[in-house]
Design goal:
This protein is α+β, with helices and mostly antiparallel strands and about 325 residues long. The protein is built from ten helices and six strands. Helix 4 runs antiparallel to helix 5. It is found in: Endomembrane system.
Length: about 325
């Protein structure tokens, strides 16, 4: 089931991305042209510098129907006012002067002015086209991967929520049907246990031969307000709203993959450490000077002192001393 849901997510994602690419390639509206992007940037920068609502025409102090001669005259006048040499030390004067030149170039060009007039009359769109935002933000591979992870995990969480609500309704319906079968239409609780059969597979249907076949029947036991599922082995399992699994971020595919990888890494690390400990223990037992080897060791001897002996050699020597002492007596 999880694999099916994940594949379904990928299919939906591929469909959405493909539709987006096709739309992006086939749609060449005003908001997706490079020349429009330049106008959008100028409008934004001009309003930020000169005040909201400032237009190319209002900044040059000409009307929107001004002739080319009038625009040239207004540009020369404005450029003298904003020239950096006449405004030493003024913050942002170089940017404003350069912006004035670009705006004047657009208004002097017939096609450029026509394109600006379109947005001047209709307003600059709030959504400026996918190409505009992509050219300015250019998401890297990491950003795209994070976006896809969030998108697919969010979709999976949404499916989990829908499945939880569906299962919750099924559980509540099964409990109600079990109580109805056990208590009757009045739905008054009765003492003792009552075994009933509840139809979980929908209403009756006809098979290929035309015979009426009941839906999937489930054995259940009702005791007071509690409803139990009776399995073939005779065990009772309480049925309540906790039987439905709620949605959880921890059960989305990326979090499960992350948790599984961490557990696998810890398991491998523990096994590796156990292997190292076992090798060290084996090496300690196999060393000739190890106390566990049963051989004689010599350590800490001083002048005039016999080396200490351990193991079988020491026992043999002690026995010989006792026999010599017995013979002398």
């Amino acid at each position: 089931m999880k694999l099916f849901v994940f594949v379904a997510f990928l299919a939906v994602l591929v469909t959405v991305v493909s539709a987006y690419i096709i739309t992006h390639l086939n749609t060449r509206s005003h908001a997706d042209r490079k020349e429009d992007h330049e106008i959008f940037d100028l409008v934004t920068a001009l309003e930020a510098s000169e005040g909201k609502g400032t237009t190319f025409y209002s900044w040059l102090d000409v009307s929107s129907t001004a002739t080319l001669v009038q625009i040239n005259k207004a540009y020369r006048k404005k450029s003298m006012q904003l020239h950096p040499d006449k405004n030493p030390g003024v913050k942002g004067i170089h940017e404003r002067f350069a912006r004035l030149g670009v705006i004047a170039t657009i208004l002097k060009d017939t096609e450029g002015r026509k394109r600006y007039d379109f947005f001047y009359k209709n307003g600059v769109p709030k959504w400026r086209g996918s190409g505009y935002y992509y050219a300015r933000f250019r998401p890297g591979l990491g950003t795209v991967l994070v976006f896809l992870i969030i998108l697919t995990s969010g979709l999976q969480y949404l499916v989990q929520t829908l499945n939880y609500k569906r299962d919750l309704r099924r559980v509540e319906l099964a409990i109600r049907d079990a109580r109805l079968a056990a208590w009757g239409p009045k739905m008054e609780p009765l003492q003792g246990k009552r075994k009933v059969k509840v139809n979980l597979g929908g209403g009756p249907r006809q098979d290929e031969d035309g015979n009426v076949v009941a839906g999937k029947m489930l054995d259940m036991v009702v005791e007071q307000d509690n409803v139990f599922i009776l399995d073939p082995s005779g065990s009772l399992h309480l049925l309540d709203t906790n039987s439905a699994t709620p949605a959880a971020i921890s059960r989305t595919w990326f979090i499960e993959l992350l948790i599984g990888s961490i557990r696998k890494f810890r398991y491998s690390k523990e096994n590796f450490q156990k292997g190292v400990d076992n090798e060290q223990s084996a090496a300690t037992v196999d060393r000739p000077d190890s106390p566990a080897s049963g051989t004689a060791t010599h350590s800490g001897t001083s002048e005039g002192e016999e080396p200490r002996q351990t193991g079988h050699a020491a026992a043999v020597k002690a026995g010989g001393r006792r026999r010599k002492a017995t013979r002398k007596r």
